[in-house]
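Hey all, quick one. A colleague (J.T.) asked me to put the pyridoxal-5'-phosphate job into the tracker so the inputs and the structure tokens live in one place instead of scattered across chat threads. No bug as far as I know, just bookkeeping. Sequence used:
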Amino acid sequence: MSSAQNTPPKTPIKNLRPATRLVHGGTLRSQFGETSEAMFLTQGYVYPDMETAEARFKGESAGFIYSRFSNPTVAMFEERMALLEGAEAARATASGMAAVTAAMLGQLKAGDHVVAAKALFGSCRYIVEELLPRFGVPSTLVDGTDLDQWRAAMRPNTRVCFLESPTNPQLEIIDVAGVAEIAHAHGANLVVDNVFATPLLQNAFELGADCVVYSTTKHVDGQGRCLGGVILASNDFIQTHIHNFLRQTGPALSPFNAWVMLKGLETLPVRLMQQQRNATAVADYLASRPEIARVLYPTRKDHPQHELAMRQMKGGGSVVTFDVQGGKEEAFAFSNALSVVKISNNLGDAKSLITHPATTTHQRIGPEARAESGIGDGMLRLSCGLEDIDDLIEDLAAACDAIA
Ligand SMILES: *Cc1c(COP(=O)(O)O)cnc(C)c1O
């Protein structure tokens, strides 16, 4: 077209800033020119002729084959996530746990060894502590904040190191770059579950991770609707360890859920920044109340690893953890007195959600492991949502009054 000659060259999406990538990145527009991304609810694809089908199966011609491993809506979501993270490649999965499981099993075989931080999301801990050893992959759990423990746990056959930072629910900060250095010195890969930080507040690749996983169920959806997950890594890592594993075992993200996540990414920066503003104000308010024994929030000066948090994160995130004065009885009374904040074990939602880890998410690990991890009976984890901050503070004030 002649007019194209007068159009200045378009800026490649990779040169645009994150918020812009999140609105436009990865869009595949159909012949109808729709503004909003289309949802392709299809299992399969038709080919114009047998030769095309043959070429696609041989990988000689680009195109979709079957939605267990390739679908246009899912591909848009994967491309937008990769652009956000600055990763070469991404693969979406049906849930965050499907992403973690594939990221681990995809690169391990019997005889390998895994080192992981103790403070893991409950199901992640099951994978490392119970599932992998059943298939001949023993694991060592360490205090993630102590680099000497990581060093001491490494063996010649250690293939993978695995961590979350900030951790759930204590919001401990693990030195990602420090662990990456140890892992690489021993020829192991570092997998980071970056859910609590989100891609906007912590770039685990820049800190040395080889593979980053998310439960997109949390902030990426952000409105509590669909489960989803994603694995991000280099092209080589995805091709060597992940692509075929997912293709053949089938934990595929539904195109419907991928569409919800894709649209969620467009508003992620504005939502997350508002949640973070609310979390910062909530943390400061709770710290001012005598009924609250301790507040944990990464960007507060009294956080035990404040300096490390400021070094490796761009913000404190949407979750505040705190201990009420007393134990389970006071924690329950506090939570039951809330009305705007809802009781739920999820996080990253538009709605503020509170949970009592000792009796819910961390009930299974038992009292000794909880004590060792500093998860007391008075601890509550609050995921701050998008409500007006004054309503949140009034709600929390009433709950403090209820246990005064
Ligand atoms: C929620 C969560 C998961 C699991 O994700 P699902 O989507 O629920 O399967 C894994 N890791 C962390 C840190 C999480 O918060």
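Adding what we noticed when we looked at it: The chain has a mean pLDDT of 96. The longest strand covers residues 158-164.
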